[in-house]
Amino acid sequence: MADERVFAEAAAEEPLSELEPADAFPGATAELVALNDELAKLPTGATLAEKVAEKGGLDVAVVGATGAVGRQMIDCLAERDFPLRRLRVLGSARTAGETLPWQGNAHLAADDLELHEGTAEALAGVDLILGAAANDIAMALYPAAAKEGAIVVDNSSAFRLLPEVPLVVPEINATDVAESHGIIANPNCATIICLVAAWPLAKAAGLRSMVVSTYQAASGAGRRGMEELVAEEAALALGEPVPEPSAFAYQLALNLIPQIGGFDARGYTSEEMKLQNEGRKIMHLPALRVGCTCVRVPVMRSHAESVALRFERPITPAEARELLRGAPGVRLVDEPAVEPPARRYPMPLDTSDQDLVYVGRIREDLGAEDPSRALELWCCGDQIRKGAATNTVQIAELLLAGE
Ligand code: 2RA
Predict the structure, then answer these.
(1) CB-count burial class (<10 Å; 0-12, 13-18, 19+) for 326
(2) Active site residues
(3) Is there a smaller number of Cβ atoms within 10 Å at the N or the C end of the chain?
(4) Is the distance from the beta carbon of residue 271 to the nearest atom of ligand 1 less than 6 Å?
(5) What is the pLDDT of residues 33-83, one digit of tens each?
(6) Does the reported pTM lie above 0.70?
(7) How far is the CA of 296 from the centre of ligand 1 (A)?
(8) Number of domains into which the chain is organized
């Protein structure tokens, strides 16, 4: 029963596996290859700058607006003063007619926003779509919207590996947005958090391979995941029976679940393969090798990752610290040698509800054949913000600047 649920969930979220027959890219299916070919016919070089100049602001739609990531996207648009003319919030038919709060920004006054069902009609005339919905909704709505001239920045995994769809972490490959044919994909949360930390070192010393273990928060399964963890912890505190899990396959409180997504024939989960497949595309390192174990942990909303990096050239922990100290999107938090409470390293409680990836515990990797070319580090970042919503809005900002 539990396994079936995990597999059903994984199939809905992530149809791609490196072991499926791949005509053109990992996870290629006839439908995705045809979609990629269709997208290739649309023009590149999309920008939102002209529309802002023309209309004085953008018509933006958030699809999947009631989920944890959708709500955070709305807050990011407010916090970052995104030039809005109108904000549409779209959800399921069940939530249509309910409202979501909009705190307002310099361009659009505070208001209650009425939810509408996510349909093609509801997206008519929209300039920018921020997607926080599942793959099936993304496939049904966004290619048609892109053909109509909308720009889509999508957080689902539906389009991430399509060659005609840039997959972007602004700190790493911002210029890739210029190649978009209307759809730009936001990477998986665990990929973003790992790569923001690894990229400054990869750029300096040439990255050959990574071995990563993730410690992924309940928020990765959305609001339901967080609510389930809270309910389990409350039951345990009161000495009551723990409710039957539904967001996760097993009880998460007081537990670790070493499976996120479905398994492939080699025993890797879809979540684990994302780090290699997405990492290769984002860093333009097609031969990068990544071993990965993804684990769900009873933490609310920040993912943490243990990362072992193997380089082409020697690099010392001191050099790595210097590179990371000035790196975009990174906060170096690496003071293990002092006594508590001044001793500091990244922890999920400190990295939640902010946008930086904290990096620390940087040291030579003694398990490598040549430790002078290998480092271990530990990084943490807010899965809902930098792992999803903030990165999506940052991508949209690149288009405002016309980059
Ligand atoms: C997770 N990768 O943490 C998901 C969220 N995108 O389960």
Answers:
(1) exposed
(2) 189, 303
(3) N
(4) yes
(5) 999 999 999 999 888 999 999 999 999 999 999 999 999 999 999 999 999
(6) yes
(7) 9
(8) 2
